[in-house]
Write a structure and sequence with these properties.
The chain has 293 residues and is α/β, with parallel strands linked by helices. It contains 11 helices and 10 strands. The chain has helices spanning 2-6, 19-29, 45-55, 70-79, 91-123, 133-149, 164-171, 173-190, 214-230, 258-274, 286-290, and strands at residues 33-37, 60-65, 83-86, 154-161, 196-201, 204-210, 234-235, 238-239, 244-251, 280-282. Strands 5-6-4-9-10 form a 5-stranded mixed β-sheet, with helices on both faces. α3 runs parallel beside α4 (70-79). The radius of gyration is 30 Å and the shape is elongated.
Amino acid sequence: IVKSVLKKYFKEIFVASDGIEGIKLYQEKTPDIVLSDISMPNMNGLEMCREIKRYNPNQRIALFTGYNEIEYLKKAINMGIDKYILKPLESKQMFEALDDIVNSLKQEREQKSYKKNLEFASQHDELTGLANRGLFFTLLERLIHRSVREERSVALLAIDLNKFKPINDTYGHDVGDKFIKLLADTVKSIVRESDIVARYGGEEFVVLLHESTLEGAQKVAEKIRVAFAEKSIYVNGEHVKKSISIGVAIYPSEANTIREAIKFADVALYRAKETGRNRVIVFDQSMFKEKSY
C-alpha cells in the first residue's frame, strides 16, 4: 500500500522484505530516504538502521512505529532517526514526515552546492575559469612532490600577451577580455588534462607540464604560440593584431627550487619580449650575466 502511494511522488521506490535484504538493497541503490517498519523478520528495523548509519551516518531515515514500541522509539532517538510515523498509518502524517525530510535534503544540497561554488570561485579566475595564483601553487606542490619521488622533470611556461595595454586602451576592456579568454582556451586545447594551467595575473599565464623534457616543452610552447596567432578577433570589421611571448624553464635543472624555476621562466619571458616579442625563449644562466633581474 505504501509503495503504491509513494510511486506517485517519488522517482524510484525500492522494496525489501526484511532488514537483511534491506541492507543489501541499500548498499546497491543508495536511496535518498529509508522508510522502514520497526517490526520485521530476520532483522528488525532498528538493527537495519544501525547498520545503515554505520555505512552512512547522514542517511535520512523515517520509521513506522506503534504505540506499544516505546522502548524501540527511545533507541531510535539515540540513533538519530529523522522522523517517526505512528501506526495505524495515516497517509497525511506519512507525507508530512517525508515532506520535512525532502525539504531538509534540498536545503543540505543547496548549502553543499553553495559551498562548492564558493570554493571554486575562491580558487579560480572568474573570466577564464582557470586556476588562480593561489590554487596554482597548491596544485604545484602536489605535482612537484610526485615528480621528485618519481625522479621526473617538469617544465614551466610563462606566457604573456604582447602589447595588451594598448589593446585595452584602444578597443576597451570587453575586447581585452576576449583576448584573455581566447588565450586561455588556446592553451587548454593544447596541453594535457593532467598539466596545470593558471592565470597568474593580468595578461600573464603559467603552465606546468609534468614529465616533460626541454625539447618537449619547447614544442608545446611553440604550438601554443602558433595556434594563438592563427586565431582572429575582429572589432567593427577590423582585424586586431595580437601575439604572445613565452618563457620556458625546467625543474630540476639549473633551478634548485620550483619557485626559482618560475622566476627563470619569467626571466626567459621578458627576454622574449625584449628581443622582438612573439617568440619562445628557453632560460639559461647567461641571461643573468647580461642583465640583472
